[in-house]
UniProtKB/TrEMBL annotation:
Residues 1-20 form the signal peptide. One of its GO terms (biological process) is carbohydrate metabolic process. It comes from Petropleomorpha daqingensis. The keyword Glycosyltransferase does not apply. This is Fibronectin type-III domain-containing protein. InterPro entries: FN3_sf, Ig-like_fold. Keywords: Signal.
């Protein structure tokens, strides 16, 4: 290749590079879809009307008690957990039931001079819970 041809080729390449660099590619996309999206969640509600009835105080240590409640109307629950709160600060889960139960009979440790209240918690398989208001207190 001659020097003149080489110079022309270099000049053509340089001009085409400059011209191509000034023309940037551009693209844009736009789409609009009408409609609405809504997401709903279920609220887990606690049982209501929790009562504790003392069946007996068999000796100086134990209280036999029946806890009852109105069931939660929430869907997809798997049961109830009953918790005892003693006035000295001790908290004990005393039992669990399935969805068809609205009462639990249990024995709790009594402390002289202490009273106990109970709550019932709605439980689900996915971890959501809702605890009721407490029952009236019981003592021996």
């Amino acid at each position: 290749m001659s020097t003149a041809r080489r110079a022309v080729l270099v000049l053509v390449l340089a001009v085409s590079t400059v011209l191509a660099g000034g023309l940037a590619a551009e693209a844009s996309f736009s789409e609009s879809v009408g409609g609405s999206t809504s997401i709903t969640t279920n609220a887990i509600t606690a049982p209501t009307g929790v009562t504790a009835v003392k069946n007996s105080c068999s000796n100086a240590r134990w209280i036999d008690v029946t806890i009852s409640w109105q069931p939660s109307p929430s869907a997809r629950i798997n049961g109830y957990a009953v918790t005892a709160y003693r006035s000295d600060g001790q908290v004990t889960m005393v039992g669990t039931t399935g969805t068809g139960s609205t009462a639990l009979r249990t024995t709790v440790d009594k402390l002289t001079g202490a009273s106990t209240v109970f709550t019932v918690t709605t439980t689900t398989s996915y971890g959501w819970t809702a605890e009721s208001l407490s029952s009236a207190s019981i003592t021996c």
